[in-house]
User: Fold this.
Amino acid sequence: MDILLIEDDTIEVMKLERTLSKLETKYTIVKATNGEEALELLKSGNKLPDIILLDLNMPRMSGTEFLEILKADDILKYLPTIILTTSENRADLLKCYQIGVAGYIIKPLKYVDYESKMKKVLDYWSVNQLVKG
Assistant:
């Protein structure tokens, strides 16, 4: 499964890479540090990811701004996008689901809890029928 991770925090990127390395299923991860960079990757003509993991709080373009652009695109709107955030703000949650997010995951403080949540998310999407670009 190909994953596009949109995250500006190096530690969060390392946490996901560490978690993926422990899983039986092999994942390919492409990283973008902000929404603008992610849009360039998605529109580059290269293979589209199976899922997008998106942080909400990023410089230059917020996660919700990225989502709005993504969901307005006739091709990209079908990519399942899962929010990975520290924000427990209900307004953020509602806005993301209104735009069309596939999931909203609160990043836990403990690494073992993070690993458990990510394994569940990736297990689900690895058996889900995905739209291939």
